[in-house]
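Example 3.2
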Amino acid sequence: MTSTSPNPSAGTPSAGTVPEPAGAPEPVRRSDAEWRERLSPEEYSVLRLGGTERPYTGEYTDEKTVGVYSCRACGTELFRSETKFDSHCGWPSFYAPLAEDRVRYISDRSLGMVRTEVRCAACDGHLGHVFEGEGYGTPTDQRYCINSVSLRLQPERS
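Structure, written as tokens:
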């Protein structure tokens, strides 16, 4: 594996050319009842239970607006639009997080395969998975395949 590999036991992937903001996000802790009250049933299913929205149904799959994508559960800034690319996989794809301290990685052995799950470092919400070595022409050769329902786009002000 390379140094940009999302191997949860060997560190985290490199953010490539994306500038690193200062400071890790503050932890967000809520009870299950509080999460159920704050999130819609679909948001709760994905963010708290690790579900997945259906491909090609998310509001940000084809989004081109310049801005920052934040965690829908807690508001932590996670990805910049500059790192979003068209992977044609059915979900929004990014080649790097805003900063490595914004996400955490978990080995996911569900579905009979080994994948790397991506979670919000602040609230532990499920975002999606990161894949590498698929041949995309991105600076990191990684695809952060993220559920739209896990994100909220904050457009850049003109």
